[in-house]
Design brief:
2 domains; 5 strands; Rossmann fold; mainly alpha; single chain; three-stranded parallel sheet; 53% helix; 12% strand; 152 residues; elongated
Amino acid sequence: MNIFSKNDDAVPAFEGREFFNLPESKQLELLSENLVICRAEPKDKQRLVKMLQSIGEVPAMTGDGINDAPALQQASIGVAMGISGTDVAKEAADMILVDDNFSSIVDAVQEGRCIYVNIQVKSHECSRAMDSNKIHQYLVSPVCKYRLSLTF
């Protein structure tokens, strides 16, 4: 997913309570870099989402329980577990991992990036084709003595 570069030898990892015991200035400093936060309590997940959004990030959050639902809904992308997840978590999430396998997130992100690029390319091609038709109409019309329509 290109979250970590090859130069990231030692990525800091924190448990949720360990991370939130740090001073807020240190937390914000760490959030501006690559890090891993695991085993976070549901309330900590919500705090983390708010902090990430406050610094302009687009957070994704995973969860499986009823108590994770607020953080899943608050995150830009909420990901619920399909097998072990509760119905409440699934309702709050934007995406459900049917197989509870985190590598599925990587596959979904890669597929999403391909779709995004394809949409960009196709819309650009369509725009260029429409523009070239308009230009062609304005160049050829006077030569062929066609009347120009003022609307398209």
